[in-house]
């Protein structure tokens, strides 16, 4: 493997690792913790979490996706993750952020969070497999 390909794999691992770590934290810690707060706290917290997450997380995601082209299987896993994020998570994120901005409590906060929670484990698994695939690409 050439040095350039190894560097691409390393960048892909770092970018993917950041997103994987975030999704894994959400699946393991955030999801059950938020199930124990009231709707007002849920709306405010998730609105602000998504405000920063949706602004900052695209950087490592784009780095991971671009560099994953060097490892085709990781790219497929990334694209599956991207479909879930763009179709389900991102619209929910925007709804929570807007409500937090307007100091509103969403009447459907629990339902929205349930919809977000139902795919976070799958998102984390896809990212975890992408990290493993990228790691294997450094060895082979």
- In helices, the fraction of residues equals over 70%
Oligomer: single chain
- N→C terminal distance: 8 Å
Count all strands and give the number: 0
Q: Report the C-alpha radius of gyration, rounded.
A: 16 Å
The major beta sheet can be summarized as:
none
**How would you spell out the order of helices and strands?**
HHHHH
In terms of per-residue confidence, which ranges show pLDDT below 50 for 5 or more consecutive residues? none
Class derived from helix and strand content: mainly alpha
How many domains would you count in the coordinates?
Answer: 1
> What's the rounded overall pLDDT mean?
93
Helix count equals: 5
Strand proportion, as a percent range, falls in: under 5%
Q: Which of globular, elongated, flat, extended, rod-shaped describes the shape?
A: elongated
Keywords:
mainly alpha, 140 residues
Can you describe this structure?
The structure is a single chain. The protein is an all-alpha fold. It has one domain. The protein has five helices and no strands. The model has no long low-confidence stretch (mean pLDDT 93).
Helix and strand layout, with pairings?
Layout: H1 3-34, H2 39-56, H3 58-68, H4 72-101, H5 109-139
Helix pairs in contact: 1-3, 1-5, 2-4, 3-4, 4-5
How would you summarize what this structure contains?
The protein has 140 residues and is mostly helical.
